[in-house]
Amino acid sequence: MSRIAYFGPAGTFTEQAARSLADGRELVPVETIPAAMAAVRGGEAELACVPVENSVEGPVTATLDGLAEDSPLVAVAEALLPVHFTVLTRPGTETVRTVASHPHALAQVRHWLELNLPEATTVAASSTAAAAVAVCEGEYDAAVTAPVAARTYPLRVLAEGVADVPDARTRFLLLATPGTLPAPTGADRTSIVASTANRTGALAELLTELASRGINLTRIDARPIKGNFGFYRFFLDIEGHVAEARIGDALAALKRRCDVRFLGSHPRADGVRATVGEMATDEDFAEAATWVEAVRSGRQA
Ligand SMILES: O=C(O)C(=O)Cc1ccccc1
């Protein structure tokens, strides 16, 4: 049976996301985001499930860096989870002095902690579930976790539905080694990472290649290129599928200008259909290509 390596241990938000995408596959927890990617690169798992962005805290940098470095991986599916937290303690704990969680989780409950546990010190853990494990082992007094962790660990629920920002969401990717692409649906996302030259207008030129082909950009993040201070990579998410003419044409144009890595085309979890700019449908591209062929073969003045 094929396996999905997910950012664990058991009881993370990522496990919840992986479960929603599993389709009968076996789920295998691994300790870090790079380890989940390494499991796919090394062939121990067919797929990896990792968080990629959060509506409050922004990009998950370990995922972005892991996608840009090492051998290529592509996103073949995504999941979008509402993020509200459960606070767990050991049964019998009277005073909470330390609260542990993943930094993204701590950042999303800061206000709640100030109001409800003002004396407690916060401690970063590698994941929300790793914090729950540490509480079980007596290392910290409380953990801020995913709801599923309350069923996974023998801890007491101190609070549920905790979220400073209502309607916070996290998006997760299912990653594979490059192979057959998911079929286009009309509501797809294409992701790339581009390393531009450091000169005036280089980024503007990349974005113009997209804009002039009627492509809507949904996310842009910059990450430093390690060992090269002051140099950045740009992670771009765009609406559409590489099988569509405007997207393929834009990627070819970007490839001529700079170093580009394709990170996948897959259906959007929210089902939002791609905006297609004027004169940018596949039919518009096909008609224009037919006209050029005619010109080249002397059939058109
Ligand atoms: O630590 C987890 O449970 C994760 O899956 C990462 C995460 C952390 C905080 C919000 C959403 C996902």
Automatic annotation (TrEMBL):
**Its GO CC terms?**
cytoplasm
Q: What class of enzyme is it?
A: lyase
Reaction(s) catalyzed by this protein?
prephenate + H(+) = 3-phenylpyruvate + CO2 + H2O
What pathway does the UniProt record associate with this protein?
Amino-acid biosynthesis; L-phenylalanine biosynthesis; phenylpyruvate from prephenate: step 1/1
Q: Where is this site: Essential for prephenate dehydratase activity?
A: 170
List the PROSITE patterns: ACT (PS51671), PREPHENATE_DEHYDR_1 (PS00857), PREPHENATE_DEHYDR_3 (PS51171)
Q: Where is the Prephenate dehydratase domain?
A: 3-177
Give the UniProt record's GO annotations in the biological process aspect.
L-phenylalanine biosynthetic process
One Pfam match, given by its short name, reads ACT
Q: Which Gene3D superfamilies match?
A: 3.30.70.260, Periplasmic binding protein-like II (3.40.190.10)
Q: Does the keyword Amino-acid biosynthesis apply?
A: yes
Concerning SUPFAM superfamilies, the annotation shows: ACT-like, Periplasmic binding protein-like II
Which residues are in the ACT domain?
191-268
Give the protein's recorded name. Prephenate dehydratase
Write down the species.
Saccharomonospora xinjiangensis XJ-54
